[in-house]
Amino acid sequence: MVVALREWGRTRSGLAGFIARTGRPPDRVPVIALLLAGWIWIVAAPFAHGVEITYNANPVQRQVLALYDGKAEPTPTDTRIHRFAEMPLNYLGFVLVYRDVNKGFPDADTLSSYAAVLTWFLEPLSDPRAVGDWLMRATAATRLRYVVLGELLPEAGEELAPVTDRLYAKLGLADGDDQVEVTIGSSVAEIDAAMIGFERPLDKVLPSYPVLRAVGERTRVHLGLQVRPGASSEVSAVVVTGPGGGYAAEAFTIYFEPNADRLAWTIDPFRFFAKAIVGGMYPVPDATTVGGRRIYFSHIDGDGWNNLTEVESYKTEGLRSSEVVLREAIRPFPDLPVSIGLIGCDVDPQYGADDGSAAIARALYALAQVEVASHTHTHPYNWSFFEDYDRASEIAKIEAYQRPELSLRQRLSEKVHLMAGKPVPVTGANKYIAGTDDLPRTYLKNPFDLGGEVAGGLRTAENFAPAGKRARLYQWSGDTTPFEAAIKATRAAGVRNINGGDSRLDGEFPSVAYVPPLARAVGSERQIYAANSNENTYTNDWTGPYYGFFMLEETLRNTERPRRLKPFNLYYHMYSGEKPAALAAVRHFLELARTSEVAPVTASDYAAIADNFFDIAIERIDELSWAITGHTDLETVRFDDADALGLDLARSEGVLGATRVNGGLYVTLDRARPRALVTLAARTETEAANRSGVRRPSLRDSRWRLSDLQGSACNLKLAATGYGPGDMRFDTMPGRRYDVTVMRGDDMLTSLSAVADDSGVLRLALAANAIDPVQVRLVCRD
Amino acid sequence: MIEPRRRQRWKPQLLVMLVLFIGAAVAGVLLLPGDAERVAMLERDGSNERALKLLEQRFAAGDRSQRTLYQLEQLYAHFGQLPKARTMLERLAAARPGDLVLQRRLVTFYRETQDTEAYLSSLSRLLTRRYSEPVCRELVSGLRLIGHFARERDAIERCRHKGYRRIEDIVRLAELEAANGNLRQATTLLRKVDEVGHLEGDRERLTLLALLSEGGEPREIVERVLHWIAPASGGHVDDRFALLALDLLGRRQAFTPAMEIARKAGKPGDAISLGVAHLLLDQDQTNAARAYLRGWLEQADHGDRALAEKAIRLALDAEDPSLAFEMATRTGLSRFHQPQLVALAEALAATGKRAEFDTVRLEIASETITAHPLLGAMIEFNRGATSSSRELLDTVSADALGRWRLALWARLMRDSGEAQAADTKLRSLGVVTASLPDDKPRILQRRTRRISLRLAGGAKRSHAVKLTQGKRGKAANVKNSAYRSGGAASRPAPVARPLAAVEKRG
C-alpha cells in the first residue's frame, strides 16, 4: 500500500516528494498516518490544485570558499588553488569562490552556502590575526569543512598559538609546536598507499615537516612520520582527513623539481578533497560528456591564415595554409563540427590581404559543420595592456621596436613602387604589423577599441558567412588572459568565449597539475578554458618539431582514464596547414574522432556546457534521490564508485538514461525539462527493470544530442541534433523490435527497424543529417 | 706515292679525337647525378614526396648507408611518420655510437615523442660515451621527478665519478645514502663538499651535523660549527646558525659538543649562551639550569624582547617562576604578548607567588582572562569568591593541560577542598602526585613541549623552505618560480607570421 501510494504520489507533484523530503523512508512512517494523509490528499486534491507543497529538501552545497593572499598571489588566476587544486575540485562537482583575505571576509550568514573553506597560503600574511579569527569563527560551525594545504597561517607568531591550536583542533590535530628540519632518523610510521604517492612516491629523503599529533578517533591519518627512531609515540600526522575537513603539510602536497621545472602531486588530490569535503554521494555535474559519450569539439584560431603552405601537393599552386586546412581537414569531415576563429585584420586589404583570403573565409563558413567564430580583430598578445589602454604608450612601443632590416632587393622594390606612385608592398618591416609578441598586438595601425575588437571581430567573421549564420564564439588570443570588460563584451555580443588553459597530461607534463579547471573567474565574469592545448606547446611555440602535435594522443588517453577529466578537444591554428607533419597530425586526430565513440558538438556548445556547470543546483531528496535544476546546457551528472547502483527510471524524472564509464555512472538529463529527479537503486534491480520492457528504453549513449523526450514505453520521440550518423544505444527488453524514423518537420529523412540484442541493447545507426534539429521516433513492435 | 704519307699524318689525330670523345662520354656519364644527388636535388626543390619514394626504394633494395638512413629519418619526421622516423634514427644511432650529436638527437627525439623511459635510458647511454654536466643534470632531475630514487642515486654516483660536482646533487646523494642507512658514506660525501667550502646552506650543514652526531664525532662537530659561525672580518658570529646547530644537537642528545659550542661561541647574556640553559634542561639538570639562568640574567640585554621570551620560557621549564618574573619585569611586562603573560601568571599562581601574580595579572586583558578560565579561577579565588572560582574550575578539563597549568589546577583543586579528586585525576593521568611548596615546586614528571632555540622573532617554526635558502637555496624555494601560472605552457601563442605569405609572394 505504501509503495502504491508512493508510486501514485509520484505522478503528482506532492505526496511522494513530501514523504521523501521529510527524510523518513515510508516504511518508518506509521501506516495509518500515511493512509490518512493519502486519503486527505485524494479528497482535497481537486480543490488544492494550486497549492504549493514546500519540501524540506537539503540543498547540496557545491561552493567552496577559496581564501587567498592577494599580496602573494595577486589575482585568483595566479593562485595555486586555481592552478592546481581547482580542477580536482571541479571534478568532484565543486565551484570555487575566491576571496582575497586582504579585502575582508564573507558575512557569517553567507557561510551556509559553502561546503568548505580552503586555504593554501604561501607567504606570511599581513594580518594573520584577522584571518585566524575569522577562520575560527567560520569553522566553529560544524557543517563547514576546513581544508588546509600547507601552513595554516605562515610564520604566525606565538601570540596566535591559541588561534592555531583551535584551527588544528578542527582538523583533528594538536600542534606539537615543532618542526623537524633535518629528517635523518625520521621514518614512515603510517602510510595510506591509496592517498600518498599519487604521481610520485614519497621521497626517499623525507622533506622537512611539522610535528602534529592526531587527536580523535575519527581523524584518519594518511601519512604519519615517526619523528625519532624508537620514539614510537612521537608520530607526526602530516596528511589527515576527518569530519572537520583535511590537512596536508606543504611538503606532501606537490613536489616541484626545479631542474626539470616540473611538478607532481604527492597526495591524490581527488581522494584528498573527496574525503575532506564530500559528505556523501551526490550527482556531480559533468562537463565532459553528453548523451553518455565523451564530448568531441574542435576549434581553430586563425593565426597563419595567409601563410603559404609547404605541403607539397599544394605548394606549387601557392595555396595558403587556411585553404589547405579547408581542403584537408574540414571539407572531408562533414561529420565533425569545427569552429573557426577569423582574425579580422587577416582579411583586411590595408594589411596586405587580398581577395583570396576572403574567399577562403567564405568557403569555410559556408560549410554546414563550420561554426562562425572570431579570434579577435587585431590579435592582442598582451591583454592586460588594453585594460587601461593608452595609444601614446603603444605608439612609443611601435617606434622603439627594432624592425628587421630590409634587404637590398626590398629597398629597391620599395623605391620603385614609390616612384611609380603605387602602394608599397607590405613586408616584415611594416611598423604596424608586429613580427613578434614584443608588441602588444599583431595589427597596430588603428587605436585599440574594445567594441571593435569584440563586436567588430564577430561582425567581420559573420560578413563571410551565409545570410542568417551568426557568429557564436569568441576565441581569445595571445596570452589568453582577457580582462573583465573584454569578457563582458563577448556576453553583450551574445556569444560564448573560450581559450587559455593549455591542458597537458603526458610524459612531458606528467601531472594532473597541468590540467586546468573549467574556467577562470575574472571579476564577475568567467572565461572558459579550452579543454586541450593547441599545437604550440607541442612544437616549442611553432619552431619545431612540427610533428609534436601527434603527442596530443597521450593527453587524450590520460584525461579519459582512469578519470574522464576533459573532453576530446582538437584545437589548433591555421598555420598547421603550413607544415606536412602538423597537417598529418591534425588529420590523424580527425580520423581518431571519426572512429571513436564521441559526441561531437560545436565549441560554443562546449563553452555553454562548461559555463552551465556553475549554475546547476542540486537538492538531496533522500539517500538515493536528488532533484537537479538549472541544467540548460550541461546534461550529464556522474556518480563515482557506483558499480552497485543503477538509474531507477521508474522513480526518476527528466532523465534519458545512464551509462557506465570508469566505474562511474553517467546519467543523461533531459535538457528540455527544467527539473530532473534522479533516483538510484540497486544495479541488479534497475537492469532487470530495463530488460522487462515495462519502462521506456533507457538511453545508454548517443552521438547526437537528445532532449525533450516524450511518449511512453513503446512510442517515444526525442528531439535530436548532431553531426555525423546518429549512432545510439538504448537499454530495453531483449528481442524487442523498434521502428525508428527520423523526421524534420513532415519530411522523413530516414527510417529503419532494429531489434534489441540478447542483452537488451538496441543499437541504432541513423543515416541522416541532424545538424539542423530533427525528431527521432521509436515505436516498438511487440 | 703521296697516299702512304697521308695515312701516316691522320692516324694520331684520329686517336686523339677518339680519346677525347671517349673521355668526354665517360665524364658525362660520371657527372650524371646519382641517387643521393637526385634525392638532394629533390629535397632542395621541395619535392619531398618524390625524394622519399626514391629513398624508400633504395632502402627496400638493401641500401643501409648512413646517408640514406639520415635522409629517410629527416623526411619521415617532415611528414610526421614517427614510428618510421624513430626506426631510422635508432638504426643510425646504432651504426654511429660515437657520434655524440646523433646520440643527442636520439635523446631529444625520445623526449619529444614522450617515451620517458627511452629518453632517460638514452641519456644514461650518452653519459657512458662522454661525461657532460648538463646531461648529468638532466638525467638526475628526470629520475628524481618520477621518483626512481635508486636509479637517481646510481646516476649521481656515476656522474660524480666522472667529475660531476653540482653541490645540490652531491648533497642529495648524501641524503639518499643516509636514507638507505649508509651513514658513513653520507658523512664522507658531505665532509668532502664542506672541505672545499661549498656546504653553505643551513639544511646541508645541519644534515652533516646530524650525521656526525650519529657517528659519534663530537670534536669534529665543534670544529665545524665554530668554523661556520666564525665572523667574517670585523663581523659578528652567526648566532642564527649557532642556535640552529645547538637546537639540532640538543634534539639528538649530543650535549657535550653543544655545550662546548655554546661556551666558546656565546657571550654572557646573549642568545647562544642562553642555549646552555636549554641544553642543561634537555639533560634534566634543572638545578644547574636554574643557577645558570640567574647568572645569565645579570648579563642579558633586557631590551631584546624575543630573547627575554625564550629566557622566561626556559626559567619556567627550570621550575623557577620567580626568575621568570624577574626577567619579564626587567624587560617590561607590557612588552609581552598576552599568551606569554598568561603562562607566567599561571606559573606564579601555581607556586603561590601572590604578589608577583597580581603584578602580571594587571597586564592581562579582560578578554584574555575570559578565554583562560583557569586563570580566571585563580583571580576569583584570590578575591575570595570561592564559588565563582569553583564554577570556572569546573569548566576546565585536566586532561589536556600543560605542566604548569596542571600544577595550578591541582593547587586550586586542593585549595577548594577537592584534594582527593585532584589526586585521583593526577593518578589517572599518570602524573606523580607532588606536593607544591611555594618556592620549589616539584616537577610533575611531565615535560613541557620543547622550546625552539631559534631566534626567528616569535615564530613557532620557521618556514621549512627558508632553511635551504642560501646561495643555492633557490632550488628548494617552492614558492618561487617555476610553478608557472596558467598550466603547462602559459606562453603566448607564437606570432602567426601574417606577412610570411606576402613576403614570399613579394
Main features:
heterodimer; A: 782 residues; alpha/beta; Rossmann fold; 7-stranded beta/alpha barrel; eight-stranded mixed β-sheet; globular; B: 506 residues; mainly alpha; 27 helices; elongated
Question: What do these coordinates show?
Answer:
Chain A is of the alpha/beta class. Chain A folds into four domains: 2-55, no CATH class; 59-280, Rossmann fold; 289-391 and 445-608, 7-stranded beta/alpha barrel; 620-781, no CATH class. Chain A has an eight-stranded mixed β-sheet with strand order 3-2-4-5-11-10-9-7, with helices on one face. Chain A is globular and about 90 Å long. The two termini of chain A are 31 Å apart. With 506 residues, chain B is an all-alpha fold. Chain B is built from 27 helices and no strands. The two termini of chain B are 76 Å apart. Chain B has a domain at 328-455. The relative contact order of chain B is 0.04. Chain B is 66% helix and 0% strand. Chains A and B meet through α6, β6, β12, β13 and α8 of A and α4, α8, α10, α12 and α14 of B.
Quick recap:
The complex is a heterodimer of chains A (782) and B (506). Chain A has 782 residues and is α/β, with parallel strands linked by helices. The chains are: A alpha/beta (782), B mainly alpha (506).
Would you spell out the secondary-structure blueprint of this structure?
The complex is a heterodimer of chains A (782) and B (506).
Chain A: H1 2-11, H2 15-21, H3 31-44, E1 58-59, E2 63-68, H4 80-91, E3 95-100, E4 114-119, H5 128-140, E5 145-149, H6 161-170, E6 173-180, E7 187-191, E8 209-214, E9 220-226, E10 235-242, E11 245-248, E12 254-257, E13 262-265, H7 269-277, E14 284-285, E15 289-290, E16 293-301, H8 312-315, H9 321-330, E17 338-342, H10 355-366, E18 370-374, H11 391-400, H12 408-419, H13 450-462, E19 471-475, H14 484-492, E20 496-498, E21 519-522, E22 525-528, H15 552-558, E23 568-573, H16 580-595, E24 598-600, H17 603-612, E25 617-622, E26 625-629, E27 636-639, E28 645-647, E29 655-661, E30 664-669, E31 675-682, H18 683-692, E32 698-702, E33 705-711, E34 715-721, E35 726-731, E36 737-744, E37 747-755, E38 761-766, E39 774-781
Parallel strand pairs in A: 2-3, 2-4, 4-5, 5-11, 16-17, 16-23, 16-24, 17-18, 18-19, 19-20
Antiparallel strand pairs in A: 1-25, 6-8, 7-9, 9-10, 10-11, 12-13, 14-27, 15-16, 21-22, 25-26, 26-31, 27-30, 28-31, 29-30, 32-35, 33-34, 34-39, 35-38, 36-37, 36-39
Chain B: H1 2-31, H2 35-44, H3 48-60, H4 66-79, H5 82-95, H6 100-112, H7 116-129, H8 133-146, H9 149-161, H10 167-179, H11 183-195, H12 202-214, H13 218-229, H14 239-251, H15 255-265, H16 271-282, H17 286-299, H18 305-317, H19 321-331, H20 338-350, H21 354-361, H22 366-371, H23 373-383, H24 386-394, H25 403-415, H26 419-428, H27 500-505
